[in-house]
Amino acid sequence: MIQRSGYIGVFLQPFTKEEIEKFVAHWLERFERVEQVIPGQGNYTSTMVIEKLDDIFYEEHPQFRIIQGDEFAWVYLSNNRQIIETTSFFSDQIPLSLEVLLELPNLVEVVEETNEKRLKELEEDHYF
């Protein structure tokens, strides 16, 4: 059975267009490939390669796939929110789902998706 790994990154302030551009710029510098789910696709299977910031589709809930070698991580965020959710497959090393969060600007906390207590607190504080 394939195991997956997921994290929630909590940020200092709600995301703006400029903040999202900073995230994508970071991923473009750090990882082999960045893709974004094409808006309006009902099945969320179509993506477009992001090579520069002008390629970003601006929408309320952008979703990205970050690729490094044979691994990939999904990244989910929303405008005017303060969290990024990530998922990838389990790895003996740092999972890509964690690595895509590291060093992002204004990141204040990373929570494993299995930490039900902390996730409940974040939900009660209206982060979700």
User: Mean pLDDT, rounded to whole units?
Assistant: 92
Coarse shape: globular
| Distinct helical segment count | 3
Largest sheet strand order: 3-2-4-5-6-1-7
Query: What fraction of the residues are assigned to beta strands by DSSP?
Result: 25-35%
Q: What order do the SSEs take from the amino end to the carboxyl end, as H and E?
A: EHEEEEEHEH
The secondary structure category is alpha+beta
Please outline the major beta sheet. Answer: 7 strands, antiparallel
Gyration radius, rounded:
14 Å
Structure report:
This protein is α+β, with helices and mostly antiparallel strands and 128 residues long. The protein has helices at 17-30, 96-99, 116-124, and strands at 4-11, 33-37, 47-49, 63-68, 71-77, 83-89, 107-112. The protein has a 7-stranded antiparallel sheet. The longest helix is centred in the N-terminal third of the chain and has 14 residues, at 17-30. It is globular.
Short description:
The chain is of the alpha+beta class. The chain has helices at residues 17-30, 96-99, 116-124, and strands at 4-11, 33-37, 47-49, 63-68, 71-77, 83-89, 107-112.
